[in-house]
Amino acid sequence: MAKHWRQTEPVRVYLCGPVTIESAGQVVCDGAVAGPQGRLLFAFLMSRTPHPSSKADLIRALWDEAPPPSAETALNAIISKLRRVLKQVGVAPPYGISNDVGTYRCAIPFAWLDIQTARTAVDRAEGALRAGELPTAWSHANVAATITRRPFLPEESRSWVQAQREMLTRVWRRATLVLSDVSTKREEFELGIHHASEVLAAEPFDEVACQMLMRAHAAAGNRAEALRVYSKCRKLFRDELGSEPSEKTAAVFLDILRA
Fold first, then answer.
1. How high is the mean pLDDT of the chain?
2. SS3 content of the chain, % helix, strand, coil (to 5)
3. pTM for the complete prediction?
4. Residue-wise over 4-43: b if at least 16 C-beta within 10 A, else e?
5. Cα radius of gyration (the chain)
6. Per-residue pLDDT band at 222 (split at 50, 70, 90)
7. If you average pLDDT over residues 117-141, what whole number do you get?
8. Closest CA to 63 of 132, 1, 156
């Protein structure tokens, strides 16, 4: 018998890594979330929460611009499967997937959602860093980076999936740069270098990561390596873009050179 919703049984939803729904000791994971299409639709609805989506939005989310002739019938079947899965973890009507005047939303009160948590955490991390609250900045940045390191629907190529991945990559970059800055300020230089190097390896044209990596090496007492980082950055910009790094990046280089 399906459990009914109780506020004492919060639901945790993971969209990064295996799509997972947890509540009251019950776990529904990946393919068990109403099959591949059910998992895809659930991820779409949860990634847009609390905003409603039209039926056309859901059809595009599942099939892009090539829906089958019976798309609406197939969509209704997938939604029915998802509602049954949500009942298994205690999310019963009026919660779960609802439709109103042709729009749909997935409402799970008091739910913890990983991608929402990551976005909130990175904002708090950057705010704490600006305020000089290093332990708080580290804690929030670590949460955001840990969540966003996990892949989002890696086997899917839908346009909305790619857009979501790009957003999560930006969150990961911001969080990892906070980790680098905090580590360097705490004189944990190897960690500061590691985190800045991670970002620069993922995006070689990221000048903030370049600046942070230079500062971390310089703070560790390795001025020569800091200058080599700038040299590599400058060569990349000249070879690939036909331009120079920004004045801010050059200023970091000059500060280290003069030190």
1. 92
2. 60, 10, 30
3. 0.90
4. ebeeebebbbbbbbebbbbbeeeebeeebbbeebbbbbbb
5. 23
6. very high
7. 98
8. 156
Nearest to 15, CA basis, from 108, 137, 138, 141: 108
Q: Identify the structural domains of the chain with CATH numbers, from first to last.
A: 12-110 (1.10.10.10), 114-258 (1.25.40.10)
pLDDT at 92: 81
Do 71 and 63 meet the contact criterion of CB atoms below 8 Å apart?
Answer: yes
Tokens of 7: 């506020």
Q: Considering the chain, what percentage of its residues have pLDDT values greater than 70? A: 97
Residue 86 to residue 101: CA distance in whole angstroms = 22
At 169, which amino acid appears?
A: T
Helix locations, 133-238, DSSP H: 134-148, 159-185, 189-202, 207-219, 223-236
- Structure tokens belonging to residue 126: 């950057």
